Structures are given as structure tokens and as C-alpha cells.
Amino acid sequence: MDKIQSDCPYPGCFFCVMKEANPSKRRASVLKFFRELPSQDDDGQVLPISGLWNTAMAHPNDPEFINLGIFECMAALIWKGLKNRRWLAHDQNIYIPYYAAHIIGSYTMNMEEFAERAVRAGVIPPLVELLRGRLTWVEQRVSVRALGHLATYPSTFPAVADHGEVLELAIQLASSSLEIVYSHFYQFVDRRLGYHCDLLTRGMGGVEMESRKAEEWASQLQCWSLQLINCFAFKPEFLHDICKADFLIKLPGMWGGLVNENSPAGVGLLRTICQSKVGRGHVANIPGTIDALCNIARSSDDWQYMAVDCLIWLVQDASTCHKVIDKVAPTLIDLANISTLGDYKKLGDTIVTVLQEFMQQSGNSRSTINAQTKEEIAELLRSKQSLKLEKSMPKEDLHIKQAAALVVKLEGNSLFSSGNIAGAAEKYSEALALCPMKSKKERVVLYSNRAQCYLLLQQPLAAISDATRALCLHSPVNRHAKSLWRRAQAYDMLGLAKESLLDAILFINECSQSNDPDLSLKQNKVPDYAERLVKKQMRAAWLFREAALKHGGVHCEGDASDAFGQEGDDSEWETASESDAENDARGEADDETEWKNDGHREDFCEKS
Question: Region labeled Disordered — which residues (predicted)?
Fold first, then answer.
């Protein structure tokens, strides 16, 4: 029973060893295999390594191979590839350093005990050499992944940090990864390394799939670099090296793209930085970073709450609040009616408390506050006081206020239909002043209507503010389709492609689930105007766009078709804010929820 019957031509074949029925014999054979493999020069070595890669991916918490020396073996194989280029070029050995680093990363991503064993096995030095770029970006990707896992654990972080260049290399890689992958792989199809193509597609795809996977891997390379930096950012002694102005200004733009939406990327690192007083001091000195955080905080980004955290902490810090309050306060005020966001409960109440405390502290401070900022915060506090008073107000009085607001709103609708957009905006403002604070559905419509007016008046910042307020009041949060579309148009007017793209995609998603005939997709077809905007913003927010512009892949700001390898659209690209919004100018304003007018409703697909 113990004897292995095999026709395998390779003595000591790993796959044959794994078929051994006797556990003790199998362990002994595997131990021998791991010890001897790095010193062998036989053909076919990549086969057992790829098998181990599959095993590590499928069973990363299994200790069997850890106890038998897999980390020592993988470290030795990486060193062999770095030092012996003749061996590396022989047969299919070029794949081995990649697989070896990936195996180390897989076995260390969940178990601190395994990470400790890996460090003792000496995996860090060869991983650092791969991180330096001694081979290619493909090996850099798996090395930064493995080092990021090792840096996650308190017991193994010091071993990573002892290699002082790791942090600097990770910062360089986060900043340049997209350009590296574009210029070294994506740009020139005929120069792509064969083993890169095989690793990207597993031999199952052509040029188009290679390009798609390259974008995904480039995003991972950047995001995993940021994850490694994030481990250092929790330690105050490293913040000075991380918080360089040229790096902080780039961080909000490192967002992972649609291909890597599960990573908080740049905003996640900024959140870690802002947890420290030292970090907040650095961030507060970069106005562009504050502006970007405000945009993310207002957006429908999955990591919106992280940007909100940063803004709240900056306002709560006495040493940074006066530097940022004029930029941050309008954003926080727009978000003050939000209820739940992620794990946040009663986020709006937290925001109000933070701004109220700021006002109290600023009264005792010599620092000056912009008069407009002070008035906007005061107005917010008054509105919250009105909400409290409404709780004790007779229902009849509330109904009177609601009816009065409805009358004014209908006047605004009439002005909007006649083309008096400025007059309509004023009426919606009057209706908001009359409308009870607790009438959330009605206020959603009023804010959204006024946002549409501001769009047509070419006031995108005001439109974003009102659309955001409507989205915060809506239940569920960030799911009011018309406000999403209007904010997408406003972001488009400001050239904020990522924010516009996310809102446009979410708008389409809401339309697909809506029972409202004005919103639901006709014959499951995405409206042409929404499709146009999404395509435009996908090109503008393309991960490789800056690299392509730099290296000649995109010939002008308005045309990314060459870089995508697609034919350009025959029609001239229009911004939704210019084309569809202009068509809206003579249409009806929204009239939703309990507030019905005489039954004349707008056709959303034509007018919003």
C-alpha cells in the first residue's frame, strides 16, 4: 500500500510525493523536496511551484507546508533568480520568482504565526530586492503584497521597517506604478513579455484581455503599495517621510479605479494620517488635498465616510481647524442631515456637534473666521433648533407651513416652465424656508429642483451642494436618482470625472431598480444621455490617462480613443450639463412624493 506506482519520469516529483498514502513518508519527502529544489537545475521546476501557488491560494491557513520549510525554499528560489540570470532564462524558470513571492504573500495574509515563521526564514531581503525592481513590475506587485502582509502584524512590522528603504520604495511605487505598467507593458502590444501575458491571462485570452488585466494589476500594484505605506503611517516616527507635499497632493487621486473598488487606496491612507496630530498638521497645509477630501466626502464613493472622518478630525483639532474651516464647513453643512453612512450612526448629529463646538471655541479665540462661513454654520444650527421646536408644534400649524411651502413651490415650477430659472430658484429657496424640517421627502424635492436651476444658471458648486443635501435627506442615503444625475452633471462642468462617473453609474443603477415610469429604463436600455456621460467620464477617469498623455498614447485632452484601442465616437462629445441640461430648461420641475400638482409630470428621461 505504501509503494507509489507511477509512470512519472521525474525522480522525487512533487506531485508524486503528494500522492504518498503514508503521512509520515509524505512529510519527509516534502521536507526533502523543499530543501533540495533551490539547488536543482532540472527542467520543469515551474510545474511544482505553480502547484504550490494554487495550494497557497486555496488553503492559506494550512500549516503543513509552513512546518516543512516552504518559506525557506521560496526565499532561496527568489535569490537564485536574482543572482543567476542564466538559470532564470532557462526553460520556464522566469515564472518562479513571481510564484515564490506570491506564495509567501498568500501564506502570510491571515496568520501572524505564519508571518513570524516567514521572517525567521529570511524572506524579507529577497522580497525587498524584488521591490527595488530588480526584475520587473510583475514581481514588484507580488513583493509589495507580501511585504504589506508582513508589515500588518505587530510582531513582524519591525523586521520590515528595519529595511529602511522599504517605505521610500513603496512611496515611489505608489506614485509611479500606473506609469510603469503603462510604459513597460500596456503601451506597446508587440513588446509585451510573453510570461507577463501568460501570468495576466493564464493563457486564456488575447490582447484585449491582457490589456484589461494589466489595468487591474496596475491598480493592485498601486493599492498594495498604499497598504504597505499605511502600516508605517500608524507610527508617528514615519509620518515625516510619508507626509511630503508632493505625495499628499496626489493621494486623493489614487482611488483604485472601477477595477479595484474594494481598496480604500489613497483616501484610506489619508484617514490613517489624519488620526495623528502630526499627520493632520501636514494635511492641513495642502489646500489641494483638503479640496479633494471635500469632493470625496460629498461623493457616492464607497469610501466617502473615510473622507468625512478626515474633515471632522481636522475641524476638531485646535491646531488645524482655523486653517481648513472655510473649505471644510460648507461640505460638512451639506452632509449635516445624513443619518447613517457605513458604520456611522447619526453622522449628521455628529457633524452638527463638531461645528457647534468649533463655534463656541472660536468665540474665545483671536483667530478670525470668514463671515460667510460663520453665517452658514449659524444657519445650520438655527435649522436644527427649528427641528426641535417642530416636535412640540401643533399638527395644524405644521400642515399650514407645509401647505404654504407647496404653494410657493408650485410658483417655482411655473417660473421654471416659463424659462425664468433664476426666479424659480428663488421660489424654491422660499419654499425651503417654509417647509417643515421634518418633511424630509418634500425637502429632497426642493433641494433637487433648486440644484437643477443652479445647473442651468451655470453654478455647479451650488448645484453640487443642493444635490448632496437632497441625497443626504433621502432614504436610503445617496440613492435619489434625479439628484445623482444632477450632481453628475455639475461634477462634469467642473471637470471632476471620477465623481461624475460614480454618480452617473449609481443613477443608472437606481433607474434599473425604480418603479417610477419617469425613471425606469425603457426596454432595459440605458438612456443615451447617461451612456454618453458614462463613456466620457470613463475615458477621462481612465487609470492610465496621465501616463498615456505623458507617453503619447493620448494625442489631446479630448480624445482617449487611441489609448483605449477603440474607434472614436463619430458624434462630438457633449457634456450632459451643456446638452441635456439645456433641453431641460423649458421643462417642468420635479413634483414628487406627497406634493402632486395638477397631474402634469415631467418625462425624466428627456428633462432631468
Answer: 559-608
Please tell me the distance from the alpha carbon of residue 199 to that of residue 203, in angstroms, as a whole number: 7
Distance CA 438, CA 389 (A): 11
How far apart (Å, rounded) are the C-alpha atoms in residues 435 and 166? 57
pLDDT at 109: 96
Using left for φ > 0, alpha for ψ between -120 and 50, and beta otherwise, residue 542 falls in: beta
Average pLDDT of the residues in 369-379: 92
Q: At 580, which amino acid appears?
A: D
The pLDDT of residue 261: 74
Q: Phi and psi dihedrals of 601, rounded to 5?
A: -115, 150
Q: What is the DSSP letter of 185?
A: I
Q: How far is residue 152 from each of residues 129, 145, 279, measured CA to CA in Å?
A: 20, 11, 20
Task: Return d(Cα 571, Cα 329) in angstroms, integer.
Answer: 41
What count of Cα atoms within 13 Å lies in the side-chain half-sphere of residue 300? 30
- Rounded mean pLDDT, 473-487: 95
Rounded CA gap, 161 and 151, in Å? Answer: 8
Task: Dump the DSSP string for 356-396.
Answer: HHHHHHHHTSS----HHHHHHHHHHHHHHHHHHHHTTS-HH
> Residue 79: what residue type?
W
Predicted TM-score of the model (pTM): 0.88
Report the C-alpha gap between 298 and 499 in whole angstroms: 9
In this prediction, residues 300-319 reach a mean pLDDT of: 94
CA quadruple 52, 57, 63, 68: dihedral, nearest 10? 20
Q: What percentage of the chain exceeds 70 in pLDDT? A: 87
Are 547 and 189 in contact by the 8 Å Cβ rule? The answer is no
Pairwise CA distance, residues 100 & 78, whole Å: 7
Q: What is the pLDDT of residue 605?
A: 29
Q: Model confidence over 127-179: pLDDT tens digits?
A: 999 999 999 999 999 999 999 999 999 999 999 999 989 999 999 999 999 99
Q: CB–CB of 125/146 below 8 Å? A: no
If 0-12 CB within 10 Å is exposed, 13-18 middle and 19+ buried, where does residue 483 land?
A: buried
- The C-alpha cell 536574482 sits at 82
Instruction: Write the DSSP string, 63-129.
Output: -HHHHTTHHHHHHHHHHHHHH-HHHHHSTTGGGHHHHHHHHHHHHHSS-HHHHHHHHHTT-HHHHHH
Q: Rounded distance, CA 571 to CA 578, Å?
A: 15
Give the pLDDT confidence of 426-436 residue by residue, as tens digits: 999 999 999 99
Interacting residues of 87 by C-beta distance below 8 A, sequence separation 6+ = 41, 80, 81, 93
Report the chain's mean pLDDT, rounded to a whole number.
87
Query: Comparing C-alpha atoms, which of 602, 606, 605, 577 is closest to residue 445?
Result: 602
User: Can you point out the beta strands (E) in 380-539?
Assistant: none
Confidence at 22, pLDDT banded by 50, 70, 90: confident
Distance CA 223, CA 146 (A): 13
Output the pLDDT for position 556. 43
How would you write 250-318 as a 3-class SS string?
CHHHCCCCHHHCCCCHHHHHHHHHHCCHHHHHHHHCCHHHHHHHHHHHHCCCCCHHHHHHHHHHHHHCC
